[in-house]
Each structure stands twice: as structure tokens, then as C-alpha cells.
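Figure 2 data, in text form.
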Amino acid sequence: MKRTILVIALFAFGAVDGGVAQCSTGSPSSAREIVQQLWSMATWGDLSSDSGWDKASQSFFTKPNPVPRDKSVAIISNEWGPPSERMLDSDSAEVEVGFRDLGQIDSNLRYIPPKPTDAIKMGKSYHLILVPAYLKMYAADGKTVLQQKPTGCQQWEIQGSLDQPWTTVNTAIRYVLERRNRTQDPKIRQNAEATLSKLLTLH
């Protein structure tokens, strides 16, 4: 019983929203740093897990959204960025990240190549705004907000919602291997083998 109470206490009072607000210096982290953190999470493969998706959606976006039912994952080049920042005014900014689109993996681990294009590199733009920062306390499920208090600080957030999980080629290989090893479905395992053969030719 004591152990159960301790776990709930850790979730309720120890889990603080991941948005960046540096009260000690009086100035929030840059918009570019927020996008860098999001893309780093994608590179590590966090966006393809339910917990990672929830963390990114709730921490970085003005309109958090639930984990998508479609379990497809977009694949990008191992090398991307770095994010470039352009201030629009004192409380809004545009951040763009350059990358190469290398297709996607669907929910059955089939590889789908990208649409033909003459572009060598693509870019994704984010519009960020400064919003009030809150200290959030969560319930035992780690998602339900029990209480939130204003901190008197501001933080950058990306306008809108997180759209689709994406990750780099190297992490996609690990993702397919892990899912292949967990399934007993022969068709999905066959798809995984074909996808791995293709991913190993990309970079």
C-alpha cells in the first residue's frame, strides 16, 4: 500500500509540463530551441510511442492532440536541420527545418516510397508564439491534469497540433526490427524483411 501511494505522489507532484520557461533569467528559451527539442525526440524514435507522442504534443503545441490511430511513420534523412529561426515580432517567430523525404512505413510495416519530386531537399515550417507558462500537476495516469498554476513566465509553443510521427532512417531500422520481433503474423514479418532491405540502402 505504501508503494502505491508513493507512485501516485510522484506522478501528481513530480510531473511538470515539459514546455520551456526560464524564470531564473527572466527570458524564455528561443523558438528555435523548441523545434530542435521536438526534432531530437523524433530522431530518438519517441514520437512513434504513445508516451513520447503525448509528451511532445502536450509540451510543445498550442493544441495537444491524442495519439493517431494510423500507426504509419514518416522517414526522413539521417541528416536534417539545423533549424533556422526568423523573428516576426516580439512574441512570434517562424522556424524552418530542412530534410530529405524518404517515404514512410505503414501500420503493417510496408515501405511506401516518397512521391517523385525534383527538389533535392524539403523544408517544414513552424509558427511559434509566446504564451503564459503554467506548472501542471498530473494524476496517476500521467495525462490527466489535476491542477495548473501560472508561473508568471512565458514559453514558446508551436501553433497547432502534432501531425504524424516521423523519424530518421537509422531509428526506423530499429523500429521495424523491434516490431518484427514482437509479432507472430507471418505477413507483417515478411513486410518487415522487405522494408529493412530498402531502409538499409537509404541514409
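Caption note: The chain has a mean pLDDT of 86.
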